[in-house]
Amino acid sequence: MSGAATPEARIGTEPESAQGLIDRAEHLIGIRRYADALPWLGRALAAEPENGRAHCFMALAFLSLGDYTKALAAAARAVSVDPEDEWPHRLLSVALHENGKRRAALQAAREAVRLGPNVPEALFTLVQAQLACRRRLEAVATAQHLTTVAPGEVLTHRALGDIAMARRDWGGAEMHLRRAVARDPESYVALNNLGLVLHHLGRDREAIERFHEAARANPAAGEARGNLIGAVRRFLQPTIPLLAAGVVIGALAQATAFQPVVFGLMLLGWVAGYLVWRKRRLRWLPPGAAAVYAHAGVWRNGPFAPAAYRTVRVFTALFVAACWRLRPPR
Fold this sequence. Notes:
The protein has helices at 7-12, 18-30, 34-47, 52-65, 68-81, 86-98, 102-115, 120-132, 136-149, 154-166, 170-183, 188-200, 204-217, 223-235, 240-253, 260-283, 287-296, 307-325. By secondary structure, the chain is mostly helical. Among the domains are: 1-119, Serine Threonine Protein Phosphatase 5, Tetratricopeptide repeat (Alpha Horseshoe), CATH 1.25.40.10; 240-325, no CATH class.
């Protein structure tokens, strides 16, 4: 059969040189199979331990998998092997930031921009490092340069969106992050940050959808999944009328003449009302988001239990106390 070979076929026919192994790993990283890329990079580095490109891809894969300690080691090794390239310094900055070393991350980002003053990725990394160190004016200046270098690109809108978030300008942040997502619908960070912005705007249902899309875009990263679970938990918390009804029931439980049977019926009615309301809310969620929430077991487990579950436990304790107090004398 004639025709162009697929990327997989082309990669598979390359010789088992370090370059061929790195190309195979790069292909896997490009389709977000980060864990699968690591063995090929390990083989490439075994053949050429001083290959800076392989160390960079290793750092990138570990960053995408959330293993920031190994990412830092790989990025530092890449810098030592190829100190005149901006990419290793940029990766080092991100790894340092994720390990809580913000000042060192800023220094590494500045070095990356010095080596690549018009590289959009380096400028974006510097914006992130400057915001982390609360240097907002410097971040704005860097973002302005980024706008001239790469106008309308995903990284540019992400940088402007992050600056707007730092200023608590939620409307501006939403505008820029939506533009970033429009250009790259699979951008994990843009989707996750857009979810955070929508949450601050009180649009929890939309925030849940964005967190769910972010979690699907990069299942290996846990931040969006954690944000998704938290947003669903808030979405399912009882509304003010439900909480007010619970407070009234609790107050009635303290009345001396209050009958435990009546209290129990009211409590059961409140629980039934909440469960019906909660079931309707669950239907509004994306199916995958509801599945993630149910799989996490947050309805049952201690610190993650929603306010309604804790309220039911309190009311049950009040019911038992009322029954004990109103028991007939011996």
